[in-house]
Design a protein that fits this description.
60 residues; mainly alpha
Length: 60
Amino acid sequence: MRPDHQEFADGVKLAAIAAVSAVLTATVVIGAGRTLLPQVEVAAAERPELTPVVLLGPAD
């Protein structure tokens, strides 16, 4: 390849490596987060019940 095309090909290779690295990093981080944090069902079950509140207007 000519030098101009070689630089372009190198840029495309670097962009592909960056994209694959980003996907793999995101996969590892999300997997670790799901492992370390409680599941949604468990967190929802531990949430206390909400107390209904009535808002009153200003007293006349």
